[in-house]
């Protein structure tokens, strides 16, 4: 629809330009054809205005989000603690959402979404709802229904929450699929463009994160120290 509106605006713009040029070369009598010229100029102006508004709105909608603002809004980092982290110093942040153990401090927390992929039955191939056959007066034979061959596929479940990194534990607080693990039990961690995945001796954890390079660096450093 937006492309069509732009195309129509261009067409009417060209038509209005033709009429303006025709007036200047006296091919159209401005006095006798004034109404016709005015109509085309008005329509061209209308579509030109609508095309401009559409372009401006589209440009605003594609405006890039300030990466720094996104980090400050979704993580525990401030401009000061971010500078500490860049200089190799782990910041200590306050949170009232955790019950910390003795000598335990929180270094970082961030909004996160845990991803859990499971292989499940997503449909059936073939199958029947059953059928009834009258074989004699008052006697009906009914066949049983069956679902057919199950079709399996990977289904990814998303669980939003908050990820906390302390000097002892990694804690994901969420209404569903929450977890915690000790840093000394982490055996592998991998960084992605939009998140991280890690594993301990029992399970694998994949999470979507804003600025994943920061929690990745912190977890990797603390896990290496704890092992």
TrEMBL record:
<feature type="transmembrane region" description="Helical">
    <location>
        <begin position="34"/>
        <end position="52"/>
    </location>
</feature>
<keyword id="KW-0472">Membrane</keyword>
<protein>
    <recommendedName>
        <fullName>GRAM domain-containing protein</fullName>
    </recommendedName>
</protein>
<keyword id="KW-0812">Transmembrane</keyword>
<keyword id="KW-1133">Transmembrane helix</keyword>
<feature type="transmembrane region" description="Helical">
    <location>
        <begin position="7"/>
        <end position="28"/>
    </location>
</feature>
């Amino acid at each position: 629809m937006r492309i069509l509106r732009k195309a129509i605006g261009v067409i009417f713009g060209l038509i209005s330009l033709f009429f303006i040029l025709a007036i200047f070369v006296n091919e159209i009598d401005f006095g006798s054809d004034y109404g016709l010229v005015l109509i085309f100029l008005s329509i061209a102006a209308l579509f030109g205005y609508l095309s401009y508004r559409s372009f401006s709105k589209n440009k605003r909608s594609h405006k890039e989000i300030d990466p720094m603002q996104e980090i400050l809004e979704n993580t525990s980092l401030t401009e000061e603690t971010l500078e500490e982290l860049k200089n190799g110093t782990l910041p200590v942040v306050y949170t009232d959402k955790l019950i910390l153990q003795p000598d335990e401090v929180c270094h970082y927390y961030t909004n996160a979404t845990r991803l859990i992929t499971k292989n499940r039955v997503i449909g059936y191939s073939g199958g029947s709802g059953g059928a009834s056959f009258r074989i004699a007066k008052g006697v009906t034979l009914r066949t049983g229904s069956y679902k057919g061959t199950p079709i399996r596929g990977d289904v990814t479940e998303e669980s939003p929450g908050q990820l906390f990194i302390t000097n002892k534990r990694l804690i994901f607080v969420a209404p569903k699929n929450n977890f915690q693990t000790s840093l000394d039990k982490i055996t592998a961690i991998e960084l992605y463009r939009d998140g991280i995945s890690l594993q301990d001796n029992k399970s694998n954890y994949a999470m979507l994160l804003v600025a994943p390079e920061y929690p990745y660096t912190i977890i990797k450093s603390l896990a290496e120290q704890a092992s």
